[in-house]
What does this fold into?
Amino acid sequence: MRYPRVFKAIAIIVLLVIVGCANSTDESEEKFNEPKTANSSFTGTIKEIKSNTAIVNAKLGGGEGDVFVNLSVNSDETFQVGDRVKVGYDGIIMESSPAQINTLFVELID
It folds into this structure.
């Protein structure tokens, strides 16, 4: 009658492994779910304005290119093509053409 004890022991070990794996979290999953706290910024020149959106030519992420910028975050300012601006964003750059960001602020630069 040793076989029932062996099966019970194996069943308990399997259950412990399953429960242990179910409660563990992956480090990459934790980092993905953390809110971004570090904000980034760049400077550039407005190439085009349509409604509350501008296309800004900027050096960003090691290269130069165009970025969609939401101008409505600064309703106190009137922006024009050719203006130099400083743009703050949440650090995430969506790879599209032009690139897209979540604009946090836009300021004119003299």
